[in-house]
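User: Before I run my own analysis I want an independent prediction to cross-check against. Here's the chain; please return only the structure tokens and, at the end, one sentence I can use as a sanity check.
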Amino acid sequence: MAVWEAEESSASSAYNAAISADTTEYETITADAWAIYEKDVAIADAEWNAKEADASAVYDSEMQAALAKWESRELSARTAFNTDEATASARWDQTEQAAFLAYDEAIQAAAEAWNTAEQTAWNIYTTIEAEAAAEWESETTLALTTYETKMQDAETQWKEIESTAWHTFTSNESETNVASFSSPESANNSSGSSSSSGSSSGKSTGSSSSSNHSRRTWGSWIYQAFGGVVEIGPIDAYNAAMGFVANDARAFANKNGKNEREVNALRHTHWQAMLTVLHGKDSAEEVGYLHEHGQNGSPDSITDEHNNVVGRKTAKKC
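Assistant: Structure tokens:
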């Protein structure tokens, strides 16, 4: 054990001595290498600075030469450009002036052509307008004269029909006085309404047929309307039912009838007379038949049909 410890101690001393020697040698070598590095760096810096100064001098010289060449060429190019620009500007001015003169001449020529064409068109227009105005005035005068003549003839004819109808109704009692021909129910209704109204003798706008009309079915009204349209057309069918024909007959009857029965008789007579004049006897008869549809055979309907016949006869006599 003592021997092992002695040998271990000897080995450790030898190891430490070797490490110390190696460390000293490493430091010496490192110091020498760093000195050599610094020397080489100094030499390299000196060589770089010398070469950089030479390169900078060469660069500056070449840059001066290139700049001188650039300025010389730029001056030549600018001089040439200014010369060409002046030449081009002069040519442009000449071309522009020539184009403007040509444009002005073309505008003048177009204006003259336009004025000539406009004047020609205006002359043609005024001539045609004068001819059209003269023709229009001639046709208008002729149409107005024809219209006034026809209106006067129609008015005269209508007054004759109206006068004849009234004369026939008032003078021919056996044919037009429906009081004796009205149904007992109608007479009772009339007398009852007269007694309930006291001593008043004013005209009643209602009638026995109008009271029956309120009891008609929708089917009856549709049948009457459709048949009227087929017979005399939609506009005339409307006039016969609710338009000027119906209104004129109602106004005539209310004006001249003395009581409810006369008003009803006059309305049917006048209505059928107007339809006969406007559309002929057959169409007037068909419209009258359609008007009584759904009530044919009743006392009031028989009375209305009798008055319709009187109205057609009255128009025929005219």
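Sanity check: The two ends are 178 Å apart (CA to CA).
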